[in-house]
Every structure is written in structure tokens, then in C-alpha cells.
Design goal:
Radius of gyration of chain A: 19 Å
Shape of chain B: rod-shaped
Strand order of the largest sheet of chain B: 1-2-3
Helix content of chain A: 55-70%
Number of strands of chain A: 0
Largest sheet of chain B: 3 strands, antiparallel
Oligomer: heterodimer
Number of helices of chain A: 7
Largest sheet of chain A: none
Helix content of chain B: 55-70%
Strand content of chain B: 5-15%
Structural class of chain B: mainly alpha
Number of strands of chain B: 3
Order of helices and strands of chain A: HHHHHHH
Order of helices and strands of chain B: HHHEEHHEHHH
Chain lengths: ~190, ~200
């Protein structure tokens, strides 16, 4: 597993030239940001493009982030990539934020007893419809509030809540299906 | 229940850096594309910097050269003033010397040997240094008079004191003061003679 350095301050990077600094940041964060983008845009090529755009923005603003601590810097780069992902989805004119209401959902009332591992989690999230996926990622993983999500996506707060509950229902359904298949196979 | 589902996904997906095997991330290619994109938007910064530096260095060196020249001339002027035997240079327009002029050094009848000095024209700044360096005799010719005339002039010079020729003064005050001192001297001489006798 790729681990992020234990250094608490980013100042060690700023003794180097701009291109060297950028290389260090890219080596350290590119994988994490690629996976972050992949949760939003689903396709690997699209995620690469989002990462590319995000890092170009970071390169241009690299001189202004000297005094940030590592945690703040990580939060900043994640926010850049999230914004770039949303922009990318909007540009592609995908109907990302259209509320999915007519899809038949297998609402599972049973509780999930056993959760899947990391790879399955990623797979299930990527398989969600885009509207559900974006809201679930923003709320459950990035800790955005429904108000912030509504402002970002241009939807109402209640719509955000609805999309989130449906995303959860789909995920639960997928987990249960997976368990069922495993039991049959086992 | 819902909380735990969110927490589980968050725990697995937040800040995750492990890329699953079925997902391909071409890190180097992305980096190359970024650097290429960045380089396009930074055209010839190094050339601009180099040109700016060259201009600054050139201008500063010209300024330094001019300053050193001014300092040099100031120093030379100061030396000539310290010698105290040098008059300040006249402005170029007021300089009576033409470009080249023959000067007769002395025209008194007692002088039999004439030095014809050809003055070489000097620029105004160099003329400030000192007259000794200003005058560059480029040719000296001895214009000797006849030997007889020279002897006559020499003997005339020797006899000048004996002849007690009348003296002419520039002003009456000077003449009066000189006469008074002469009278005192003669009186003193008489007194001395009397005392001795």
C-alpha cells in the first residue's frame, strides 16, 4: 500500500525548485487523487483527465500554498479534485444530477451483517448511477452537508437527501446480492 | 444501520491510495501530459529573464563607467587646485588660445635668447590639470641674436644698477612710498656716518 509521508508541514517541499516541488506533490498524492476522481467520474480515462486538470491548477497555485500544513494541504488538493470532477461531469453534459425516481429499487429492509472489503466497496460505488454516486460520495465520504451539496449541484436539500437514501438502498442491495452469490458459489 | 454503512464506506474509501489490480492508472503519462500543458502556458520565461538581466547589467555597467570617468576628472581637478599654482581653466569659448599658436616667451630687450614655443591645443578638461602638463612643446628652435648684440645687452644689464636710471612707477602712491623709504635710508646712512665719526 502506498503511504503518505509522516511530515506534518509542507515546508520541506518549498526549499526545492517549482518543478521539483510539483514532482514531489505529484508522487505523493496522484494515486489518492486518481481514486478520488474515479469515485465521481467512474471511467478510468475520465479520472485521469480530472487528475490532470486538477494538478495543472495546483501547479499554477503552488506558490500560494507554502504555509499550509500537510492536513490542510491534503484537504485542499482533495477539494480541487472534487470540484474538477463535478465540473468535468457538467461539461460532458451528462445528466448527472437528474433525480432518479423511476428506477426500480430493490429496497432491502434487512440489515447488512457483513460489509465487503475495499475493492468491492469501490466497485459498488462506481456502479451507482451518477446522481446517487455524486451525492453519496459528497455526503458519506467527503462530509459535505446537504445544504452544501444542494448549492454545489444546483438541487434542493430534500432532493439531496432523497438521492442519498436511494444510494444507500442500492448499495445495501448490491452487498446482499454479492453475499447471496458467494453463498451459492460457496 | 445507515450510519454504519456510511462509516464503512468512508473508512475504506477515504484517503485510499491502493489502486486495485483491475484498474489501470498510467501515472507517468499523466505527469508528462501535465508538464507538457504547463510548459505551453509558460513560454520563454527563461529567455525573457536572460534578456532582462542583460539589459540591467549593460545599463549598470554604462553608469559605472560614466561615474568612474567623472570621479577621475574630479580627482585630477582637485590635484591641480592643491598645487595652488594653477589657475582655473577658462570655459572653452573664453579660452583665448587658438588651436595652434606660436608664443614668444619673453620680449624684453635684455633677453637675447628667444624661445619659440608652439602650443599644442588641449581640450578643456585636460587643461584643468595644470599648465605644466598642458603645454606640450612640440618644437623648440633657438633664435639666437648676433653675438655682439648679446654682449651689449649683457653689459647693459650689468651696468643697469650703476647707471641709476630713473625708475617709473605704476602709480603715484607707489612712487611716494618708495621715495619715502629712499629718503629714510639716506638719512639712516648719514646718521650712521655721524655716529661712526
Amino acid at each position: 500500500m502506498y503511504s503518505i509521508g509522516k511530515t506534518k508541514s509542507m515546508k520541506f517541499l518549498f526549499n526545492q525548485s517549482k518543478s521539483r516541488r510539483f514532482e514531489s506533490i505529484f508522487d505523493q498524492y496522484s494515486r489518492m487523487l486518481f481514486l478520488l476522481a474515479l469515485r465521481y467520474v467512474s471511467s478510468e480515462f475520465d479520472a485521469e483527465e480530472v487528475v490532470q486538470r486538477g494538478f495543472i491548477k495546483l501547479y499554477r497555485s503552488i506558490d500560494r500554498i507554502e504555509d499550509m500544513g500537510e492536513k490542510a494541504f491534503k484537504g485542499y488538493v482533495c477539494k480541487v479534485i472534487v470540484n474538477e470532477s463535478l465540473l468535468f461531469l457538467r461539461e460532458r453534459k451528462r445528466d448527472t444530477y437528474q433525480l432518479i425516481t423511476n428506477q426500480e429499487l430493490e429496497v432491502c429492509s434487512d440489515e447488512v451483517e457483513e460489509y465487503p472489503d475495499y475493492e468491492l466497496c469501490l466497485k459498488f460505488v462506481r456502479e451507482l448511477p451518477e446522481g446517487y454516486r455524486v451525492v453519496f460520495n459528497l455526503f458519506a465520504i467527503e462530509n459535505y452537508s446537504h445544504q452544501e451539496i444542494a448549492q454545489l449541484l444546483g438541487i434542493t436539500e430534500s432532493a439531496s437527501r432523497s438521492q442519498l437514501s436511494r444510494a444507500r438502498a442500492v448499495l445495501k442491495s448490491k452487498i446482499q446480492k454479492h453475499r447471496y452469490h458467494e453463498e451459492i458459489a460457496g | 444501520m445507515k450510519k454504519s454503512l456510511d462509516d464503512h464506506f468512508k473508512a475504506h474509501l477515504k484517503d485510499q491510495c491502493t489502486i486495485p489490480e483491475d484498474i489501470v492508472f498510467n501515472q507517468e503519462l499523466v505527469q508528462q501530459r501535465i508538464m507538457k500543458e504547463v510548459a505551453i502556458h509558460q513560454p520563454h520565461r527563461s529567455w525573457r529573464m536572460a534578456a532582462m538581466l542583460l539589459i540591467i547589467i549593460g545599463l549598470s555597467s554604462i553608469c559605472l563607467y560614466q561615474q568612474s570617468r567623472i570621479e577621475k576628472y574630479k580627482r585630477m581637478g582637485a590635484v591641480s587646485l592643491d598645487q595652488n599654482s594653477v589657475k582655473e581653466a577658462l570655459p572653452e569659448k573664453a579660452n583665448p588660445l587658438p588651436e595652434t599658436k606660436a608664443i614668444v616667451a619673453d620680449t624684453k630687450p635684455s633677453v637675447v635668447r628667444e624661445h619659440v614655443v608652439l602650443m599644442h591645443y588641449m581640450p578643456r578638461i585636460e587643461a584643468r590639470v595644470s599648465p605644466t602638463t598642458q603645454i606640450n612643446p612640440i618644437a623648440v628652435s633657438n633664435a639666437l641674436a648676433d653675438v655682439e648684440k648679446k654682449e651689449i645687452a649683457q653689459s647693459a644689464m650689468n651696468m643697469e644698477d650703476e647707471l641709476e636710471l630713473p625708475t617709473f612707477f605704476e602709480s603715484e602712491e607707489l612712487a611716494l612710498s618708495t621715495k619715502e623709504t629712499d629718503q629714510r635710508r639716506t638719512l639712516l646712512k648719514r646718521l650712521e656716518k655721524l655716529v661712526n665719526n
